[in-house]
């Protein structure tokens, strides 16, 4: 495992923690100290593959990235990327926004958690309550499912109720199956 280090225009690819510490020690602004050295050694020994950044002063950082690249050119051309699944070949994850807009005519089950305005009987005041609404609708996409559910609720709840975004964690949907074509 190699380490890529960068501080502004100064960058290097090293094969050991000692080389990394020597590189950072050569930059006066970084101010290498025993605590920073220990933290860099701990990061290099860990199983964490996320880049690590260290604050030098406000809005000034240096970064360390673990890589399998043998040369700087390989690193720059992203030839030795570390995969998060360590070699498991699976279908790449489809972003939620793409699933939301994927056109697939049929039946959907939509689950919407929204803030509903309700009257508190004893006080006569109104309050927001988290309300879960689940419905099965015929739609052409996840977004259409969301729109149909929200349109339905807007006709039946107080206008001050708040609906979450279709892209957020408070709306979930799943495709139930194809719809049979309507006969003319």
Walkthrough of the structure:
- 24% of the residues lie in helices and 33% in strands.
- By secondary structure, the protein is an alpha+beta fold.
- It folds into two domains: 2-76, no CATH class; 96-178.
- Strands 2-1-4-3 form a four-stranded antiparallel sheet, with helices on one face. A three-stranded antiparallel sheet has the order 6-5-7.
- The longest helix has 13 residues, at 142-154.
- The relative contact order is 0.13.
Throw out a few tags for this protein:
three-stranded antiparallel sheet; 2 domains; 184 residues; 33% strand; single chain; alpha+beta
Topology at a glance:
Elements: E1 2-7, E2 10-14, H1 17-25, H2 34-45, E3 52-57, E4 60-67, H3 72-76, H4 96-101, E5 106-119, E6 126-139, H5 142-154, E7 171-178
Compact overview of the structure:
The chain is of the alpha+beta class and 184 residues long.
Number of domains: 2
Number of strand segments: 7
Protein structure class: alpha+beta
The helix content is 10-25%
């Amino acid at each position: 495992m190699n380490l890529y280090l960068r501080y502004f225009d100064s960058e290097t690819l090293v094969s050991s923690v000692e080389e990394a510490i020597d590189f950072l020690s050569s930059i006066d602004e970084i101010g290498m100290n025993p605590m920073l050295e220990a933290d860099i050694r701990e990061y290099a020994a860990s199983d964490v593959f996320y880049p690590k950044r260290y604050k030098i002063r406000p809005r000034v950082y240096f970064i360390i990235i673990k890589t399998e690249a043998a040369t700087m050119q390989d690193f720059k051309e992203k030839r030795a990327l570390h995969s998060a699944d360590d070699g498991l070949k699976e279908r790449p994850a489809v972003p939620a926004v793409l699933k939301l807009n994927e056109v697939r005519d049929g039946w959907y089950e939509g689950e919407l958690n929204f803030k509903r305005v309700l009257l508190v009987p004893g006080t006569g005041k109104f309050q927001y309550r988290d309300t879960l609404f689940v419905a099965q609708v015929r739609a052409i996409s996840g977004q259409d499912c969301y729109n149909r559910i929200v349109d339905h609720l807007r006709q039946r709840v107080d206008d001050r109720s708040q609906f979450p975004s279709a892209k957020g964690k408070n709306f979930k949907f799943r495709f139930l199956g194809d719809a049979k074509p309507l006969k003319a």
